[in-house]
Write a structure and sequence with these properties.
This protein has about 250 residues and is α/β, with parallel strands linked by helices. It contains twelve helices and eight strands. The chain is globular and about 45 Å long. The chain starts with a strand and ends with a helix. Bound molecules: 1,3-dihydroxyacetonephosphate.
Length: about 250
Amino acid sequence: MRIPVIAGNWKMFKRAADALDLVKKLTPMVVGVDDVQVIVAPSFTVLPSVHGALSGTRISLSGQDCFWGEEGAFTGEVSPGMLIDAGCSHVIIGHSERRQHFGETDETVNKKIKAALQAGLIPIACIGETLQERESGDTLAVLERQLSFGLAGIPEEDAGCLIIAYEPVWAIGTGRTATDEQAQEVHAFVRGLLARIYHPGFADRLRILYGGSVKPDNIKGLMSCTDIDGALVGGASLSAESFASIVKFGK
Ligand code: 13P
């Protein structure tokens, strides 16, 4: 049985006061939701204060990225151990915005996933095709490449805690969600790939999240799909009301 995950990726939004305000509003709204794992991913600078504000709640904290080294002369980077210090249990890796704007590749994603696992963080590993790739019929090949390179050399005993997030790039921030059928088709394909890379029993246990314009009014349909185990939410995670309503999709 796969426990659903609803994760909010705040991206480069919310300075300290607004971040704390959001958490203070959100926490009472999701009290009593114990059948869904809730995660928030604020920006690096507010992680420790958000961590403090989450204390005593069931909400987990995630970084939005990390470097693959533990320390060294890497100006501007944040290591997995530093994220743990700041209170994180999870880290988003390979988000399409990092692939698009910051030169993230399947190879760096692989290094980061390995480093995060080694430090004891749970990676939320993102994959997804662009509009051009979808329109030219390359969706499944792109996902296969991203997943097989991203997970290369990661043994089953380390990979068991991984969370995969399928985020079609054309659905991110566009208001254009994949239909339930489109998302389910890809999720089933991704689970099949995981079964091939590892084995079917293993793939059955991994959570695969959908991301891309998830809102209170489309979460129910998405969550009714067999292979969709949760959501990675951008814009709608910036308001306590809409994020709480997504978290309470089953209520
Ligand atoms: P939106 O929900 O704003 O489309 O963003 C999705 C996303 O990129 C989450 O990581």
